[in-house]
Description:
- There is one protein chain.
- The chain is mostly beta strands.
- It has one domain (2-71).
- 5% of the residues lie in helices and 33% in strands.
- It has a 4-stranded antiparallel beta sheet with strand order 1-2-3-4, with no helix packed on it.
Amino acid sequence: MVEISREGKRVYFTNSLYGAVDPQFYPEGIDGWMVKLDAAPAGGIEFDPKFLLQWPTSETQNSPPSNKLNQFSPHANDSAT
């Protein structure tokens, strides 16, 4: 899935389609992830090296991040490189 922020400054990518239909396409389940690109006002994009979400976790086991992008902080995993 691809999601662009309303102001057009961030682009999110996940390997999840949408939590409600993922079981149809991934009956065995998936190890999900989400990454973010930052879009510069003058043009160009680059990956945010500090943003990486992976699931399932105890908090997101029944609701992958693709269902609730706006509930995650901009730098959810500051230890990622």
